Amino acid sequence: MQSKISTLKNRPYCCVTDFGEMADKVVPVVRAxxxxxxxxxxxxxxxxxxxECHEKPDIQTFWSKYQQCNDRVNSRSNTTETCEEELIDYxxxxxxxxxxxxxxxxx
Length: 107
What we know:
Blueprint: H1 2-10, H2 19-26, H3 45-54, H4 57-75, H5 84-105
Keywords: Electron transport, Membrane, Mitochondrion, Mitochondrion inner membrane, Respiratory chain, Transport
Subcellular location: Mitochondrion inner membrane
Organism: Leptosia nina
């Protein structure tokens, strides 16, 4: 009985010496194909509409009022004037123009 135990102690418990080799045989490996799919560059329709609306004459009026105010404020060294009102007016009319067509362009 002791001879059997001593011979078992000297034997390796497993025949596989490299577990990576065993894993390659047992575990299936799935690899994704390397396909280059050209994706369409997404363009924000709101940005396009803002650019288009900015060019309209009625919106250019508000833009020029804002620019005049901005130039006036920048020309002075000590002033409490800000162009907040002019900027808000410009953004308001710009957004109003954009909102007319924005949801028609969304997919």
